[in-house]
Write a structure and sequence with these properties.
This protein has about 210 residues and is mainly α. It has eight helices and three strands. α2 packs antiparallel against α6. The longest helix has about 40 residues. It is elongated, with a radius of gyration of 29 Å.
Amino acid sequence: MAGAPYLWTNELLQCIGEAEPDNRLSAFESLREEALRLGTEYQYFLTRPVFVPEEALIDPKFLAAIEREADGKPALGLVSGIFAAKLKAQLGEVTVLGEPASGAEAWSDVQRFVAARASARRFQAAWNNVVAGGIGDCLDGQELGVVQLAKRQFDHIDAAESLIANRREIRAIVDAIFVSFSRFRSTPSTLLNMSTCPLVGTANWLNATLG
């Protein structure tokens, strides 16, 4: 993988090449399904952008209000609305497709977006904890797009695993060639010139290349 974009590529190849499974790779694999799910959410909101004030994402009152809106109910009761200036301001900042959120469908998208952002935060925390082991890059930022950074790293890990699998397959072929020719060597009557046989030269070269 010459010119690989990640500084941890050599460490990755070494881990994949070990006989025993590496716990870090197993941990990454356990995150793959969630990365795929969040990737779907990311794609959805690319064409249906939602804006929610950052401080509102973890505000219990705001979360309860958008749930009511998504159910087609008023976000604020008549009495509570009098004392909810901050909440009113937060709700007023929410947009869907660049327009103020309005109607149950739009608020359902807002609710979905907030849930996706919460999942992305948990995914990011888990990913960065695994990365502390020396393989992978930390995911920085707070947007759903961080999952795309994880996807690229998954692609790199997959490519490395394919490379090691191909090396092992070639190694098995080389070993089989040497076993076959060892039988010729043990047969005095053979007329095969072992020093000049092209297959032997190829096998020797592959063996040296694969280490």
